[in-house]
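Deviations from the work plan: none for this task. Representative record:
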Amino acid sequence: MNILVCAKRVPMTGGTIVLTEDEQAIQTRHLGFTISPHEECGVEEAVRLIEANGGESVVLALGPSEAEEQLRDAMALGIDRAILLETADEFDGQATAAAIVAAIEAERASGVEFDLIFFGNESADSGNYQVGIRVAHALGRPCVTGVKGITVQDGRARCEQETASGRDVYDVPLPAVVTVKEGLNLPRYPSVPGRLRAKRKPLATSAPSGRAAGVEKLRLRLPPGQGKQAEILGHGPEAAPAVVEVLRRAGLVA
Amino acid sequence: MTLVYVEHQDGRPDDASLQAIALAREIAGDAPLHALLAGPEAEDAAAGLGAHGVATAHIADHEVLATHAPVALARCIGELIERLSPSAVAAAGSERGNEVMAHAAALGDLPLAANCIAAEAGDPMGVTRIRWGGSLLEDARLHGPVKLLTVAPHTVEAAEVGGGPTAVERFTPSLGDADQVVRVVETVQQSSEGGVNLADARFVVSCGRGAGSPEGFAPAEELAALLGGAVGCSRAVTIAGWRPHTDQVGQTGTKIAPEVYLACGISGATQHMAGCKGAKRIIAVNVDPEAPIIANADYAVIGDLHEVIPAITAELRKAGAG
């Protein structure tokens, strides 16, 4: 079987977000980058399924040239090859989906059909909750979202979602699109040989065509009420009575 | 007119859907507000919507809608868009609200603004939406012949506005086979094992990497048990494999809303704070007075969680709790 994982490069924001002067982006000069958390689990699941069933795993990212770092990371974990849709622009949900569909159709034209396409349920940064679903419709495939458990057997995918009271189960035929959530698995750490191999694995870069943004970003801003300073209850174990007093005022202690 | 897709359970509309109605009402202005409901007990859930300003509730009847079927629901929205020509369609920014609206957006090739906290009617529509689980806001223009948006839960207040009774109109959507492929075929109930659900707990104590090891959570377990609360953790802890992902508080974990959240040895990354901003009071326990969480907590104890948590437990015992 063949599996495509779509992953996004996002900054590791740490404790405080600082914006660029033009309010269009997060100031990332001092930040590292990572694959958005849900998609890390997509990468891991793809590697496991290909290990078990054979076939090829491919990782795709739409983003700046630096996203090669995240694609190499995914290949270090066992993904076979990578596709970078290189753009310095921020694409909205519709434009991202259209670019990914074009890339999948190009793969099909060269004889590669993906049985499963993994997305994150939503990206950590823009959180549009829609790219995987749009791609599924464009390709005419079923899409299960928010998946935290998947079993592939006899050309079908049994997918589980976590709910407040338990689990909801879906059963869809392949090929399918599945958007996953963190907790689906515990991603492995890359090994040193894995990192070395990743450097030599194929990475194809192309320029996606954009389209006018349907959700047109004007500016970013921090929510109000940031940076309140906590009242210091004390230092070390001596602070325990003050903590209990807060619990009492909250009605948790009689 | 404006249309709202309303999720409901046990014959009552979900809070998040009532919040979406509140924002939709602002968008609608003097124009009528309609709702779409589907599934068992939809009529009961629709009964109370008049008070929230909903003039007409459209109830979709189809056997596939007996369980959650997102594409079928999106087709229902598409049919109502055709028939009623709404200027905007809104839903809750819940997992399923976002899912159904994304399907509707894909079917109609329309833009969708997910998790809005404010909107101003117009073409384009001005919206403010959340990013990074609420750690950042985006002001945007929403284009398209019909404006599709979801409303981030707990950001807009639901309100009864004393409208008249809701007119109920039932319809049977025309669904193709492909629209019925994605649906819940089985529901597995989890045995609660007597434990307290993290999302509903009134008291949560979490530890981060500062716990040092899986065993380092024992004092937190003891304190949580004493107060009938739940134990959570940071993402660093689940990545290390010390605790299951179901214990993770954060943007990609569980969103909590306790009376008191005791966050111990947690630096306070935006990822974590996105999961606990619903807490009424946050007490941070940290050895580092400069840790970002101190700037986002209501109270702080500067100290080592391995000393502070047992001291709190001892103090509670002395006070006669448990």
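The CA atoms of residues 122 and 129 of chain A lie 5 Å apart.
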